[in-house]
């Protein structure tokens, strides 16, 4: 009778291609710790016998099977086959904890692993890994190589790596350059003796951006833009002004404002101006984590068809809202913004997805919204996000080369469109298998009743 091989390996069962990224990350971390790791996505060499070797490792080498678990994986036939084999092995070797589920999202456990205690990776991959390493090392004492085999770690990280080509590649950022800004920042004070509560109340709803400061505020707007709002009972007194360049570079010494504080004040003023501009275009705010907002358009506000754009070398046509009959949800492309002064004055734009059931009101279940974001656009790649952002900006700017953000009755911040771009001296081509079919994905195919089809090739992704 042949001697049984030592069970010292860790086998990772996962859904492909949906969980390839997580499996590569986890496999690399475990390999770096000296564990022997097996998973189909970790194949380091070609060959027709790889599948046979993989099954041999599961049947004869595996000390534990890590099941990457979410609703997609537990419903995949290939994963279910591996669960069945692993369950048979568990009974044969007498290990009731042979299968360790790694929870990436809530899932309905198959009968064969209903008893298994999972490790939670949903909230944090790092926290999940820490718990997994404790379990493998302290509880199950899975052997590992010492010292760590650096070549294995390197090879795992280089899986699916692309060869750099000596060919220039155009890259586009998410930075909107400030092409024009107000010339001066102004300080106003209220008369002495005005109660602070009255001041605070009066500052709300001001027609132009302002930041409270001492017994008054800072703003770009002149007094005649604001006095009607405050009324005769709160006459404004000019307390000084400073060029914006000096304010941002050196602060305001007379008012004991340090440069880092002045840059924060500037960012706050720009944010207020942007939010007013968004509201004027009937965009809606959605509260994200912390204080950040996502601005999106209702179904009756944003174009329902493709938005065509032509911005220099960048051109295309994209939907910025749509409806998924599969999920019974409307999706809305939106943005979050933040003003920055370094390395150049710009507004950083982050792409967002907001979901609604009626096209009018954002989903109020924060957890459900988060789950939809993670699953809905899993097949979208850089080129699609880039084009959707450009289409959204083209629509917001009404086809103009700048997006005007009024800061007073006479001055605006002009944001250049398209975003800042560069040319890299080399390029990294994407392989065709970087794309996934996704029925939630909007296309320009007008013959598709749902407006969803397979994702197009993103070989030009920036």
Protein model, in words:
The protein has 462 residues and is of the alpha+beta class. Among the domains are: 9-157, Rossmann fold (3-Layer(aba) Sandwich); 182-262. It contains 11 helices and 21 strands. The strands form 5 sheets. Strands 7, 12, 13, 16, 17, 18, 19 and 20 form an 8-stranded antiparallel β-sheet that branches. It has a 5-stranded parallel β-sheet with strand order 2-1-3-4-5. A 4-stranded antiparallel β-sheet has the order 9-10-8-11. α1 (20-32) packs antiparallel against α5 (150-157) and α8 crosses α9 (259-280). The longest helix has 22 residues, at 259-280. The radius of gyration is 28 Å and the shape is elongated. The termini are far apart. Mean pLDDT is 84; it is low at 431-439 and 443-462. Residues 426-462 are annotated as: Disordered. Residues 10-133 form the TIR domain.
Write a compact overview of the structure shown:
With 462 residues, the protein is an alpha+beta fold. 29% of the residues lie in helices and 25% in strands.
């Amino acid at each position: 009778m042949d001697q049984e091989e030592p069970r010292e390996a860790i086998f990772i069962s996962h859904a492909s291609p949906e969980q390839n990224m997580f499996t590569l990350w986890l496999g690399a971390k475990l390999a770096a710790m000296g564990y022997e790791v097996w998973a189909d996505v970790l194949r380091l060499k070609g060959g027709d016998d790889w599948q046979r070797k993989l099954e041999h490792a599961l049947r004869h080498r595996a000390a534990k099977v890590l099941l990457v678990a979410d609703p997609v994986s537990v419903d995949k036939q290939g994963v279910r086959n591996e669960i069945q084999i692993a369950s048979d092995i568990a009974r044969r070797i007498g290990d009731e904890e042979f299968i360790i589920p790694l929870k990436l999202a809530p899932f309905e456990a198959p009968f064969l692993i209903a008893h298994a205690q999972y490790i939670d990776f949903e909230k944090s991959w790092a926290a999940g890994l820490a718990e997994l390493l404790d379990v493998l090392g302290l509880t199950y004492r899975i052997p590992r190589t010492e010292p760590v085999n650096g070549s294995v770690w390197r090879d795992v990280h280089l899986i699916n790596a692309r060869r750099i080509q000596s060919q220039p590649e155009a890259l586009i950022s998410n930075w909107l350059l400030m092409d024009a800004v107000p010339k001066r920042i102004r300080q106003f004070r209220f008369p002495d003796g005005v109660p602070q509560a009255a001041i605070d109340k009066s500052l709300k709803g001001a027609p132009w951006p302002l930041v409270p400061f001492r017994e008054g505020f800072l703003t770009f707007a002149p007094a005649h833009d604001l006095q009607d709002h405050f009324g005769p009972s709160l006459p404004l007194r000019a307390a000084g002004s400073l060029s914006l360049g000096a304010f941002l570079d050196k602060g305001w010494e007379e008012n004991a404002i340090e440069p880092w504080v002045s840059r924060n004040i500037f960012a706050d003023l720009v944010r207020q101006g942007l939010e007013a501009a968004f509201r004027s275009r009937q965009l809606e705010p959605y509260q994200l984590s912390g204080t950040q907002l996502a601005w999106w358009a209702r179904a009756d506000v944003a174009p329902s068809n493709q938005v065509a754009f032509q911005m220099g070398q960048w051109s295309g046509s994209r939907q910025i809202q749509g409806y998924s009959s599969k999920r019974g949800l409307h999706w809305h492309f939106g943005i979050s913004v933040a003003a920055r002064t370094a390395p150049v004055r710009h507004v950083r734009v982050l792409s967002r997805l907001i979901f609604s059931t009626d096209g009018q009101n954002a989903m109020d279940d924060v957890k459900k919204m988060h789950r939809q974001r993670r699953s809905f656009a899993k097949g979208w790649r850089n080129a699609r996000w880039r084009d959707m952002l450009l289409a959204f900006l083209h629509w917001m700017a009404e086809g103009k080369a700048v997006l005007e953000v009024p800061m007073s009755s006479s001055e605006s911040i002009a944001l250049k469109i398209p975003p800042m771009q560069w040319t890299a001296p080399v390029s990294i081509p994407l392989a065709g298998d970087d794309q996934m079919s996704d029925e939630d994905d909007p296309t320009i195919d007008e013959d598709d009743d749902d407006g969803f089809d397979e994702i197009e090739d993103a070989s030009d992704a920036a």
